[in-house]
Write a structure and sequence with these properties.
- The structure is a homodimer of 168-residue chains.
- Chain A is of the alpha+beta class.
- Among the domains of chain A are: 72 residues, Orthogonal Bundle (Arc Repressor Mutant, subunit A), CATH 1.10.10; 34 residues, no CATH class.
- In chain A, 42% of the residues lie in helices and 18% in strands.
- Chain A has 8 helices and 6 strands.
- In chain A, helix 2 packs across helix 4.
- At the A-B interface, helix 1, helix 2, helix 6, strand 3 and strand 4 of A face helix 1, helix 2, helix 6, strand 3 and strand 4 of B.
Chain lengths: 168, 168
């Protein structure tokens, strides 16, 4: 069954999840952040079925997060390398990792530590305001219609109520 | 078909995606961040099938991101309210929104603006190091085994290579 597409919703969360609404997709990308580039390495690292991996790699290439670079001819074989768009997704992965560390770790502690080589400390991601650099929370932010919000939706009373009424 | 479970993998990204490896789940949570609490409001807002919504709400309650608070008896009806664990997921949503705004917006511009009431500016999420507060990028971080990494895996040569070799 074809699932609902969120690619055209006026919401960047929906559009992003339309790409990542499958647990394998970010995990394949995670492998790229570990420096893995080859089909067989990624397949062994994740224990993923070959057809599933081929499918997710094709999606990530089509969407421009990975690009194929031939490393051998006859037969041609490819490395899968992060693009700028793919590399920029690291922040989302790091934010997810921090939340999972806080809420899903068992008594043994966090499974993986994120070491920040630049400052020399084991650290965690923190999500802050790009303007004032204070942590962003649900209670001190509000969603507003942006320039790309569709006019036909903007006039609807239920949509106006949504943007007026937020108080999580 | 039951999909692969990632809940016990030694990786907070995998564990988090085990919860969110479905596009509807974070979108239901998004509705909670807009302040929506009632089944019918959320159903109308997302245009989601009732059985799908019931399923995702049950998951979010079971996993402790939402809690049910009765607002009426005979018949009993519930509000779905964010817990601390659910509210804390806002950072991940905000990081996703920023990435989607940068890479998935069309010429019209971003669909929704995030307004930071605390500083008074329309802003974007930025993912920084909790220690030095500089932006976290793939190239200046390294993954290391944490205290919760399983010993039986830690000894494997392929796992050691993974943690030694990362260079994305």
């Amino acid at each position: 069954m074809k699932r609902t597409s969120f690619a055209k919703w006026p919401c960047s969360v929906a559009r992003t999840m339309d790409l990542f609404g499958d647990a394998w997709t970010p995990l394949v990308l995670r492998e790229a952040f570990y420096g893995l580039r080859r089909f067989d390495e990624i397949q062994a690292g994740l224990g993923i079925a070959r057809n599933t991996l081929a499918d997710r790699l094709r999606l990530l290439v089509e969407e421009g997060l990975l690009e194929k670079q031939p490393y051998q001819s006859e037969p041609v074989r490819y490395d899968y390398v992060l693009t700028d768009k793919g590399r920029d997704f690291f922040g989302v992965i790091a934010a997810m990792m921090a939340w999972g560390d806080r809420w899903l770790a068992d008594e043994a502690g966090v499974p993986i530590a994120l070491h920040h080589e630049r400052c020399g400390h084991d650290t965690q991601a923190e999500v802050v305001c790009a303007h004032c650099h204070e942590p962003l929370t649900a209670s001190d932010t509000a969603m507003r219609m942006g320039p790309g919000y569709p006019e036909r939706l903007a006039a609807r009373p239920d949509v106006q109520a949504r943007f007026a009424g937020r108080s999580a």
